[in-house]
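F.,

This is the one I mentioned.
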């Protein structure tokens, strides 16, 4: 069975399947080459756990002539009844291979095989894909050939799992690294770090729209609420902002207590700056509504009437690695960020939700009114500050 095409496939996997860099393309090509090498495969499944805040694991299921269907689960697979009654559970529990001929009465104990028999499957083999840390993921192989897999074919499939596990582990680790970087520093910064921008002083100058916000009355809330309630409240509050920011092209750089710093990058030629500012303003309007509608109820803790403030500004920032020793932070700094922070404080003093600088208004001023000129800490000149017209009208009407 281990023909030259099969040996070529093994070498291709060991070499990193370089011609098919994407996981779906790699698995599709692997299955096609197995069939071309003489293996009578109808269905191949690969199931891999991952380290992701929202996703437990990924599934890839290939069928001959139909290609691959991918899936992801957001819950612990082991908690699902479908998994508890599946042959894969036997493989994970034992750490070894599991095989069923579908004419064997023992296969009737697994509902999964009812569907497989409906597809004409005659033989099923599940094999562990064991990673270097001894964690186990899984692969399954099914055939519709009368009589099932031959002994030589079983040997070939067992031979396949070593190189396949190594390659999937490399792909998984890279995906995990990307996910962790996206989760903790944002995808733009994460991509730079993964590309090797990891040394202190690696910075770029970037023109961007800047978002800096905080939750009103947070100090008083954190003083009177249990810490675990404060954490839940903050997570719910940040959920109100992160979605609108991301949907409108922004990137969240940092959470600072109840504060949030985000950037909306502008193209190098500045041609999209008005559009970028309009999208950031759309995000601010959405957040204004979602935070106002937010409430938190847990036990005796009933909290309503949340309010936040956000400053919108446009300017150039230094974007990159800053820190000391071997502890770095990928962030942005510069006078523009400092000004946004001062504007946010002015928003708090004025009881405003959204304020903007004159630089922002020059690009996206519709719906704003001038609030006056204000001294800015650390600057020798005053800054003209603008607020939403709708908030001015509401204040005049006593709303």
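My design for it:
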């Amino acid at each position: 069975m281990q023909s030259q095409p099969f040996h070529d496939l093994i070498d291709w996997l060991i070499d990193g399947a370089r011609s098919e860099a994407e996981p779906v393309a790699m698995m599709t090509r692997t299955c096609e080459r197995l069939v071309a090498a003489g293996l009578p495969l109808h269905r191949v499944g690969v199931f891999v756990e991952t380290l992701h805040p929202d996703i437990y694991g990924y599934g890839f299921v290939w069928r001959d002539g139909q290609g691959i269907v991918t899936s992801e689960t957001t819950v612990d697979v082991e908690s699902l009844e479908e998994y508890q009654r599946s042959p894969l559970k036997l493989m994970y529990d034992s750490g070894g291979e599991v095989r069923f001929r579908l004419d064997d009465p023992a296969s009737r104990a697994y509902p999964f095989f009812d569907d497989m028999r409906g597809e004409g499957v005659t033989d099923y083999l599940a094999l562990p894909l064991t990673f270097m840390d001894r964690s186990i993921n899984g692969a399954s192989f099914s055939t519709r050939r009368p009589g099932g897999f031959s002994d030589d074919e079983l040997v070939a499939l067992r031979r396949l799992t070593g190189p396949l596990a190594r390659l999937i582990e490399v792909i998984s680790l890279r995906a995990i690294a990307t996910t962790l970087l996206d989760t903790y520093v944002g995808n733009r910064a994460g991509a730079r770090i993964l590309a090797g921008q990891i040394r202190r002083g690696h910075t770029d100058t970037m023109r961007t729209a800047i978002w800096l916000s905080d939750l009103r009355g947070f100090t008083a809330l954190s003083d009177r609420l249990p810490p675990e309630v404060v954490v839940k409240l903050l997570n719910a509050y940040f959920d109100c902002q992160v979605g609108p920011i991301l949907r409108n092209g922004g990137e969240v750089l940092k959470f600072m207590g109840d504060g949030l710093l985000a950037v909306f990058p502008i193209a190098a030629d500045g041609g999209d700056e008005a559009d970028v500012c309009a999208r950031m303003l759309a995000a601010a309007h959405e957040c204004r509504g979602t935070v106002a509608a937010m409430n938190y109820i847990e036990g005796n803790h009933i909290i309503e009437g949340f309010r936040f403030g956000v400053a919108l500004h446009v300017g150039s920032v230094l974007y990159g690695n800053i820190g000391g020793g071997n502890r770095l932070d990928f962030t942005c700094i510069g006078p523009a960020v400092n000004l946004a922070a001062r504007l946010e404080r002015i928003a708090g003093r004025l009881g405003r939700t959204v304020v903007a600088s004159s630089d922002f208004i020059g690009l996206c001023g519709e719906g704003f009114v001038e609030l006056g000129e204000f001294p800015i800490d650390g600057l020798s000149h005053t800054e003209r500050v603008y607020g939403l017209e709708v908030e001015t009208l509401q204040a005049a009407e006593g709303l």
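The longest helix spans residues 151-185.

Talk soon.
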